[in-house]
């Protein structure tokens, strides 16, 4: 192969790291899960014994415990997960400067130009896999191919420290009978549409009419047809590459359902503070705010609106978020007919923060005064903790407002795009 792209995936990452830190956990069914008392009670990862008992990722703790009453639930230690996964990626970086993370536990790296230093790239990948296990105690599955899509597919084919090579000569035979949903970016809804048309395997997808797929799925249909035929040539990003920040957002599943605007406003204030603080940290301002709400029946609602001028002020973000809440939340005497379960504020249409001179007695001077106040509050919280300085209104419902969006370490997968 001219190009040698490797996709490495740490097997059941969170659970494996917990087992590595406490080997006795390998002897019992164990899963990493959230806390039911904070309404984050789902399975995040499980070990092999839990998997054998039927426990599945993303199901509720209650469902998992019904299947496996002896299941041991470990609450997540995100700082440890970040520390050890970076240790693993540091090994990859010893061999190439093209290492691109795909979430916390996965990464692509390009060994195409390492032959003169380390020899055969496929054998180099095997050496890296062994080093990871020997030096960290963690097992990693690897897929080796001529593009990122098939490298990712290869690592998924064997989840127990597997090593799969997919070449330009072999891929059609190797992949033709695999279900279409094994291909990156063929999700449940896309697979359902393809299956309904008789396209169930990657081989059938590769042989399908691209014009039909484009009519059926739009641009996504064309994209996955190219993927199935091996025509994907994107480069693995350099280690110094940073993804452009396009939006900043924070959300929370409330400790209890939100029944009225008073409770919603308390949560929105905390979220607005965190979004504004993150905008200032990134030296950005936003021109758009989007409010996402999910009710107790898990139905989602969203509204958005633009500012007349960019901002990084919590008060202005809160004001617009409250306006959007009144716009999209039907209520009788401020009480919602169906309580809301979770809330998210996202700031979009970002621009660089620039400084300029303002009229000393004008509206901009008042905005700068507000900004100075918010920056001071942010510094105090940064030094003494998030609860060292709070709004008096937050004490109306301490349990509801005692969360720190800036301190959350929930790690979401990154988009391949």
Secondary-structure map:
Elements: E1 5-10, H1 13-21, E2 30-33, E3 43-46, H2 48-52, H3 61-67, E4 72-74, H4 78-93, E5 99-101, E6 106-110, H5 115-118, H6 121-136, E7 140-145, H7 148-157, E8 163-165, H8 171-175, H9 188-196, H10 202-207, H11 210-217, H12 219-228, E9 248-260, H13 261-281, E10 284-295, E11 300-311, H14 314-328, E12 335-348, E13 351-352, H15 363-384, H16 398-401
Parallel strand pairs: 2-4, 7-8
Antiparallel strand pairs: 1-6, 1-7, 2-3, 5-6, 9-12, 10-11, 10-12, 10-13
Q: Which structural class best describes the helix and strand composition?
A: alpha+beta
General form:
globular
Return Rg in Å: 25 Å
Low-confidence stretches: 409-413
Strand content: 15-25%
Q: Percent of residues in helical segments?
A: 40-55%
CATH superfamily of the largest domain: DNA polymerase, Y-family, little finger domain
CATH names the topology of the largest domain as: Dna Ligase, domain 1
Number of spatially distinct domains: 3
CATH class of the largest domain: Alpha Beta
Instruction: Trace the largest sheet across and list its strands.
Output: 5-6-1-7-8
* N- to C-terminal distance: 24 Å
How would a textbook summarize the main sheet? 5 strands, mixed
SSE string, helices as H and strands as E: EHEEHHEHEEHHEHEHHHHHEHEEHEEHH
Q: How many alpha or pi helices?
A: 16
The beta-strand count equals 13
Q: Which whole number gives the mean pLDDT?
A: 90
CATH architecture of the largest domain: 2-Layer Sandwich
């Amino acid at each position: 192969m001219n190009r040698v792209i490797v996709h490495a995936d740490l097997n059941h990452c969170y659970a494996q790291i917990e087992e590595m830190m406490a080997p006795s956990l390998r002897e019992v069914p164990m899963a990493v899960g959230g806390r039911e008392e904070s309404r984050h009670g789902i399975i995040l990862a499980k070990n092999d014994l839990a998997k054998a008992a039927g426990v599945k990722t993303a199901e509720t703790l209650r469902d998992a415990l019904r299947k496996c009453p002896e299941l041991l639930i470990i609450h997540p230690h995100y700082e440890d997960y970040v520390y050890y996964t970076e240790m693993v990626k540091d090994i990859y970086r010893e061999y190439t400067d093209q290492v691109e993370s795909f979430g916390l536990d996965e990464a692509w790296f390009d060994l195409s130009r390492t032959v003169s230093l380390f020899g055969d790239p496929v054998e180099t990948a095997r050496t890296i896999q062994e080093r990871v296990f020997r030096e960290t105690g963690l097992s990693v599955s690897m897929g080796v191919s001529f593009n990122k899509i098939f490298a990712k597919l290869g690592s998924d084919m064997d989840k127990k420290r597997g090593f799969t090579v997919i070449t330009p000569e072999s891929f059609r035979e190797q992949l033709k009978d695999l279900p279409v949903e094994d291909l990156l970016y063929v999700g449940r809804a896309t697979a359902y549409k393809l299956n309904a048309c008789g396209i169930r395997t990657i081989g059938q997808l590769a042989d399908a009419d691209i014009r039909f797929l484009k009519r059926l799925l739009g641009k996504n249909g064309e994209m996955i047809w190219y993927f199935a035929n091996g025509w994907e040539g994107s480069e693995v990003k350099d280690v110094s590459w940073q993804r452009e920040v396009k939006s900043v957002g924070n959300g929370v599943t409330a400790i209890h359902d939100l029944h009225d605007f008073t409770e919603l406003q308390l949560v929105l204030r905390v979220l607005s503070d965190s979004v504004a603080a993150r905008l200032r940290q990134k030296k950005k301002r936003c021109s758009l705010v989007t409010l996402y709400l999910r009710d107790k029946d898990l139905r989602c609602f969203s509204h958005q609106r633009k500012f007349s001028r960019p901002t990084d002020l919590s008060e202005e973000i809160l004001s617009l978020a409250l306006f959007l809440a009144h716009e999209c939340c039907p209520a009788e005497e401020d009480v919602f007919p169906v309580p809301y379960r979770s809330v998210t504020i996202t700031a979009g249409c970002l621009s660089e923060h620039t400084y300029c001179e303002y009229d000393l007695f004008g509206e901009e001077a008042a905005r700068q005064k507000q900004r100075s106040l918010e920056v001071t509050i942010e510094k105090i919280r940064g030094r003494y903790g998030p609860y060292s300085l709070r709004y008096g209104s937050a004490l109306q419902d301490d349990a509801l407002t005692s969360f720190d969006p800036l301190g959350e370490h929930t790690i979401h997968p990154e988009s391949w795009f």
